[in-house]
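Ligand-bound model needed. DWN.
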Amino acid sequence: MQNCRVSGKPLHLINDFGDQPLGNGFIESKNIDKEYFYNMRTGFCEESKMFQLIEQPEPSKMFHENYAFFSSTSNYMKEHFKNFYSYVSNSGYLSKNPFIVELGCNDGILIKNFKENDYSHLGIEPSKNVAKVAKDTGINILEKFFDIDCSNLVKNEYGSADAILAANVICHIPDILELAEGVKNLLKPSGVMVFEEPYLGDVIKKTSYDQIYDEHVFLFSAISVQHLFNKVGMELIDLIPQTTHGGSMRYVLANKNQYEIKRSVREIIKKELKQGLDKLETFERFNQNVILSKNKLLKLLKELKKNGKKVVGYAATSKSTTILNYCGINNDLIEYIYDTTPLKIGKLTPGSHIPLRDHKFFKNDMPEYAVLFAWNHADEIIEKEKLFSSNGGKWIFFVPSVKIL
Ligand code: DWN
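Prediction:
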């Protein structure tokens, strides 16, 4: 069993999701006998307070020239990243001609805002296909995983950074100590690191266990991020909760004693202590809630099937892979899943092998029920698919609880 990636101490086992395929391992039917599985379990470290996967597939298995997730599929997220840009550019932390680096920039949804406003910038992205989309729009791209060597390369070729940014990326990096060292190495002494990720406090509160899959090695709290970056002489200077991805946190970090620490840091850490994000019992309770949630969803889908209802899924998210495989849901219970991503359409969902259909057919097929796997984009999707509801179609949610809308 892998020890904590921050403290090196043994982990306490929290969840056992059994054998799981890659969250984004959408597969052609001819390849299913070669499908890759690993044992997905989570653990909690009482020293670093880090909630993490115990084992994880090699990053190169997940992030490559056929990476299936393109960030710019959601209009809401495009707007969100414009606001992220405005926050950084007006933060007062940047020098006169700042150099901005984004880790894991995907198709450029965030960094394009810096490019369009003539900032000196660099996006670092290891998945070639999504990096190409960013490159084709004129964004400066380095196709690499970020580590110490990469931080030295960028420092030597471009200089030190005023700001290192990341969105839904840092929790994907297993060698998290090396990441923190690389950030420290690449930042100017007065530089800031600003990143946001799905927030552990929300995952626990909403039992959104689908945020756990191969790519998410960690689910962070302010307490665990503080502990991690303190190890390299950095500290949290601000924390800003976000509504994205079902509840995220924006972490702002700098070298120790460079900037005033905002009140939010004290207040949010206090809330986390009250929620018990530093306590093993909280995670043990979370596991009980995960089991209850699984049983309720399965019961509902089996009842609908028994009553002859047509049930489909909407949005083949990475998150849905955990739900489908852990609950044992296949195309007997969910006929199809509709999605917008050309690279996924025509394939099967990882492990559960439910066929993926172009979302354009959703309206014509007129199912009676649709499980909304992208519950984090609910407002955008429900608005887009108004016709489904007005024709009597019903959405099934499983976060924060299993219910029919
Ligand atoms: O951290 C990660 C997050 C940010 O994005 C990655 N590891 C991978 C990915 O996770 P996800 O797949 O769970 O992300 P989303 O944004 O919740 O879902 C994206 C999927 O949903 C895509 O397959 C497209 C689909 N979708 C759709 O079919 N119609 C999304 C929207 C907004 C829609 O209207």
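The chain has a mean pLDDT of 96.
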